[in-house]
Amino acid sequence: MRLTLRIWRQQGPEAPGAMTTYDLDGVSEDMSFLEMLDTLNEKLILEGKEPVAFDHDCREGICGACGVVINGEAHGPERTTTCQLHMRAFDDGDTIDVEPWRAAAFPVVKDLMVDRSAFDRVIGAGGFISAPTGSAPEAHATPVPKPIADTAFEHAECIGCGACVAACPNGAAMLFTSAKVVHLNVLPQGAPERESRVLDMVAQMDAEGFGGCTNTGECAVACPKGIPFQSITSMNREYLRATMRGGRPGN
After folding, report:
1. N or C: which end of the chain has fewer CB within 10 A?
2. The pLDDT of residue 251
3. Rounded mean pLDDT, 24-42
4. What is the 3-state secondary structure (H, E, C) of the chain?
């Protein structure tokens, strides 16, 4: 395959950026999108040019580090992570635009790399449970009904890639935050911080500069792990409950 790549290049957070065009030949349809970028970088290095900086780690669709916007879509034309997107999703001769996540809370570090530490701070505000140290409790000491366990597991699948933010026209992080809130709030182990968790995590989300949710639903469409849009409704319900009860842990 022969492709024309238009890639966002930016030297640093304060530097101006622009789309730069590259022609790349010999791309196999069996390559992943990141392998294609590796091939481009090998070509650039041989030409004495600076390679394109992009995030990646596991390359197995687990860590969420690989996200970029491809032809205007978070992670590209298929509902998967960028590292699991293969070049057979494109045609010979295609022009492909590759950009970083676009959000005020995700400042560009360089080229396609963005700083997603805002997510870490949102989790740090309340994404934990009270757990006494010592020996592990008996596995059956706290029964969890299967529907509740299923809901917790469904929301725990969020990998924090940021596709929801990149896809949202407002740059909102409601789907991410709701996944982290609901995951713990539905479990009995999460009960002690149930009210404070949602209040603190939403407050931190707002403090990070994420936009407001207007229910466009693009976040759930782009999510590679299928976090349901109803998660936002569940978090809003938890938030209302917490404000009515004063946000007192354990109440």
Report:
1. C
2. 43
3. 97
4. CCEEEEEEECCCCCCCCEEEEEEECCCCCCCEHHHHHHHHHHHHHHCCCCCCCCCCCCCCCCCCCCCCEECCEECCCCCCCHHHCEHHHCCCCCEEEEECCCCCCCCEEECCEECCHHHHHHHHHHCCCCCCCCCCCCCCCCCCCHHHHHHHHHHHCCCCCCHHHHHCCCCECHHHHHHHHHHHHCCHHHHHHHHHHHHHHHHHHHHCCCECCCCCCHHHHHCCCCCCCHHHHHHHHHHHHHHHCCCCCCC
- As a whole number, mean pLDDT of residues 230-242 equals 96
Q: Which residues contact 27 (CB under 8 A, 6 or more apart)?
A: 1, 2, 3, 36, 39, 87
Residue 27 has pLDDT above 70, yes or no: yes
Q: What is the pLDDT of residues 133-174, one digit of tens each?
A: 777 777 678 889 999 999 999 999 999 999 999 999 999 999
Domains of the chain, each with CATH number or no CATH: 3-110 (3.10.20.30), 116-244 (1.10.1060.10)
Whole-number pLDDT of residue 250: 43
Task: Specify the pLDDT at position 246.
Answer: 75
pLDDT digits (tens, 9 = 90+) for 104-121: 999 999 999 999 999 999
